[in-house]
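# step 3/5: fold
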Amino acid sequence: MKHMIIYAHPNPKSFNHAIKEKIISEIGNKGEEYSFISLYDEKFNPVLASSDFEALHRGEVLPDVAKSQSMIKEADHLIFIYPIWWFGQPAILKGWIDRVFSNGFAYYEDDKIFTPFMTGKSATVYVTLGTAKEVLVQNDMEIDNFMRDMTLGTLGLVGIYPVNVVPFYAIPKISDAERNSMLESIVI
């Protein structure tokens, strides 16, 4: 199996970074392949601009988008790693999706049909939250509710299935031992 890791966190000392390192180690231990993109390290431009539309109209794809699309084409399984900020993904990841999952690549749509082009791929979404699960549940904000945009409205819409969400709660509030236990629970 070939994985593509999409990593979206700006801090190299974050728990997200530790998750990324653990996943890369697990993939290596299984003898599987992976490609990797760190959106912040690559300074990926998240702005869907007129140049994107002009390139698509000419039948072209801009180089930074083409690189990600090539990696996706080769992958069987996409792995997203990012923090939940304001009940959503970081803007850089949202912009990456806007630019990379374009009509003609991730799907085809005209005035009559919508056809997903990413069938046969699966995904795992690893997310970190600053809030405890109990606090979210208490306030009717369970993770499945605010992850729907990603799991159904983005990945599911283009045919990626199954999509598994692995949440890690209360990251800044728990002990190092608890975080280490969470890391040990990661299995690819």
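# step 4/5: annotate
The chain has seven helices and seven strands.
# step 5/5: archive (pending)
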